[in-house]
Design brief:
- The complex is a heterodimer of chains A (224) and B (493).
- The radius of gyration of chain A is 18 Å and the shape is globular.
- Chain A has 224 residues and is α/β, with parallel strands linked by helices.
- In chain A, α3 crosses α6.
- In chain A, 38% of the residues lie in helices and 23% in strands.
- The longest helix of chain A has 23 residues.
- Chain A has 6 helices and 9 strands.
- In chain B, α3 runs antiparallel to α9 and α12 runs antiparallel to α13.
- In chain B, 43% of the residues are buried.
- A 3-stranded mixed sheet of chain B has the order 1-3-2, with helices on both faces.
- Classes of the chains: A alpha/beta (224), B mainly alpha (493).
- At the A-B interface, β3, β4, α3 and α4 of A face α3, α8, α9 and α23 of B.
Amino acid sequence: MSARTMFVLVVLLTVSGSVQAQFLHPKIKSKETTIRRVIVLPAKVNVVRDSMKGPEGMAAESDELSTRVEAMVAEVLSKQKQVATLPATAPSADGDPQQKYNVADFQTKFDDLLPKIMKKRSDVKKGRFSMGDEVLNLNLDKGADAVVFIRGEGKKLTSGKTAFRMLVGGQPAYLRLMIGIVDARNGEVLLYTDPIFPGDPTTAVDRLRKALEKGFKKLPEVKG
Amino acid sequence: MSQVGWFTTARRTSKLQIYIYICGATLYRLRQLRAMFPRKRTNLIVAALSLCIVFTSLGPVALAQKKTAPVEATPPPVREEFKFGDVDLEVLEQADLLDVRFERDGLVLADESTNAYLRRIGQSLIPRGLELEKVNWKFRALRDPQPNAFALPNGSIYVTTGLMTLIDNESQLAAILAHELTHVMRRHTYVHNRSNRKKFLTMNVMAAVGAYAPGGVVGAVITIATTVAPFIMIATIYGYSRDLEREADLKGIDMMISAEYSPEEMVNVMKLLDKDIEGENIRLFYNDHPSLDERIKYLSSYLGARADRVTHQMELNRERAAYFRNVEPVMRHDLQLAINAGRARSAVYLAQRLVDFHDDSENLFWLAESYRTLGPRAPQLTEKQLTNSAKKDASKKREKRTVEEEERELLATPEGKDNWQRHQQKAEELYRRALNAENPVPVAHRGLGMLYEKLERGSDAAAEYEKYLELSPSASDRQRIQRRIEALKEKLK
């Protein structure tokens, strides 16, 4: 994370409880495309524990948080926007390895595109970003309109680090999500939102829900 | 992006940085003292602090002398006296979790014959009868087009498909495994971790990932490693300290000789890795890791008379054809990954090697795919493009531009147009050769379809796609191709 991003992050976190930005593809804005049914791919949310001895991994907590975020995104989309979530055909370890690779490689493709989106998020509104029609190789449910990718990064502070931060300054505990909704037919990025909130990412469930609700605020509701 | 792992350069708080920090802090303090005390007294303090600076300067000098010290025989392969503490058990637990994550996220190549091949070579290098506490040897190929290898302290050794595709023979693979095995046998991860915990660790791992992560599958590996075990990521994947890496190199040579692998292949593999096809090896001024040049030098000096004894088995293990036969499926898999990750230059180089070895339909198809992906790019980077500053600029551009935008920009130049035309012609010729070869692969029709679609030859493209689906009715990308045919037909109406 660059110093500039860090500065903006700290300012944003201190000014407001949670912040978010949403960018919609013109097709969504003009209602040329409507998202009715989505498939949520496994979320990848990584949190680290920042202590005085440096950062420590939180693998189990990250896994748990990923599952929680994934479920909550589906819940918010369903309750707030009436968008149905279809089951992603989860590739099992003993299943077809090619299908497992396809999902892994497509997730990687999103990871590749994400820094470019984050560099100029407003370009989503110009329809600049696409993952290509390779999305069809995932062989997902034909009824799906879009695929949801969820990434996140967060930091939990130990008590020692919290005290140190109060004295010297530094980044607070936070969770930042990066969510992209991609057209299931042509791979165009239809929506990008990155809700962020301060606080312990592993316990702040209500804050997470609120941040997600705000994060999808601009997404048109499905009617009828 | 700096390459990471087996042959890499690491970005860490180095002794040089600490030294610069001490000097800076001292000078700052001097200015404060000058304001606080009368001139005479200040002069005494200045003299005392200057002495401190002189003494701290001796550290780097001593280090430099240590670097050029003659190479001595390495210690025994195993750190027998090693006693596990709570801190070590934590690291071990993280290593086990990493294994699970790599597997779960589809990064491990699920090809039993490849993993068995790696296992056979790895086991032949391990001294007979060696039993190590809390080590369970596992040798696996990682689906990653970037050449790299790393070992986890629990005995899991990973070699990327990119590295397996780049090297020339089994001895070179043995050199890589021997190096990694030494890290495990000498308990380098634990040693490094213990030493790091004694220092005040200021490094922000997330920032480090941001600086290094190149995207693509390798990005996924690093992301997982950061979450599960930030320390293991720094030590294992980015590289250990200079001394530990050197020990792994030298001990690796001894292990190779014992297992009848020609030791000079360790040097040859370093030379291979020095090739910067994609222009991504960026050297940072405070690297604290032996550079490839330095490693080649000390390895050559250590080899000396050891390289004189050449057995028949050593000669066999150097055979290129035998190695290629064993890893051909891995190489093809890697080409797909390289193409997906936009490493078109590497793809062309590696696919050409594969075709030179065996010009069957499938290998010709991969070379054609590589040329099609290369598009308007030049097949090789110029000397100017390989300078450090040019590589940094290119890396920044890669972060901003999408592949399509890069291609559009290049196509606006006469060189780009020329390259594009030549590469498309080359690709077409290779697809045709693939289709005329014995047992033609139907995917070559798909490749031709994509090529014609880009050349705006709609009806030809649709015809090729249809042939592909006719020959491979159960293709996993059937839905995608079907949609393309429909779109083309719609356009032609």
